[in-house]
Amino acid sequence: MHEVSLARALWRQVEAEMSRHAGRRLLAMDVAIGAFSGIEAESLEFALRLLARESDCPDAEVRIRTEPLTMVCTACGREFAPEGFQLACPACGSAETDPIAGTDLRLESLDVETDNAETHSPR
Ligand SMILES: [Zn+2]
User: Fold this and answer.
1) Cβ atoms within 10 Å of 112's Cβ, excluding its own
2) What secondary structure does DSSP assign to 50-70, as a single string?
3) Which of 33, 40, 56, 74 has the fewest CB atoms within 10 Å, i.e. is most exposed?
4) What span, in angstroms and rounded, lies between the C-alpha atoms of 54 and 71?
5) Ligand 1 center–CA 10 separation, angstroms
6) How many angstroms separate the alpha carbon of residue 69 from the centre of ligand 1?
7) How far apart are CA 5 and CA 12, in angstroms?
8) Distance between CA 30 and CA 106 in Å, rounded?
9) In this predicted model, what pLDDT tens digit does every residue of 96-107 receive, in sequence order?
10) Cβ atoms 101, 16 nearer than 8 A
11) H or E stretch at 76
12) Domain 2-67+101-115 coded CATH 3.40.50.1220
């Protein structure tokens, strides 16, 4: 299962971030899965929940959202969300477009227990 190794890699990011918050508990993690990443959200969520259960923070919530595909036109710079399988630029018609979001997996943020429940970004 591809998602298990992805979940492990993601969890290592969580642990690295949590090591900067010694003694605090992880309350929740937000993960974005690109709509075109080929990653199965349910499998990933399941794997992350298993990893959380084995950790110091077994109650940590796993929140997953799907990130829509976003393209950028290399000719005119227009960013757009392609409709259907139309990947050409809607502004200038160029076929030279590249995905800038929606094709990968990202740890977006962690909710870490604090006095005033602030959110930390891993980046
Ligand atoms: Zn264009």
Assistant:
1) 21
2) HHHHTSS-TT-EEEEEEEPPE
3) 56
4) 38
5) 34
6) 16
7) 11
8) 9
9) 999 999 999 999
10) no
11) none
12) no
The SS3 call for residue 115 is: coil
From 89, 81, 4, select the one nearest 45 (Cα to Cα). 4
Q: What are phi and psi of 78, to 5 degrees?
A: -65, 130
- How much distance in Å is there from the Cα of 74 to the middle of ligand 1? 7
Work out the pLDDT band at 112, boundaries 50, 70, 90.
very high
Distance 89 CA to ligand 1 centre (A): 5
pTM: 0.80
The rounded Cα 116 to chain-centroid distance in angstroms is: 25
Distance in Å, CA 2 to ligand 1 centroid = 35
Determine contact, residues 39/6, Cβ cutoff 8 Å.
yes
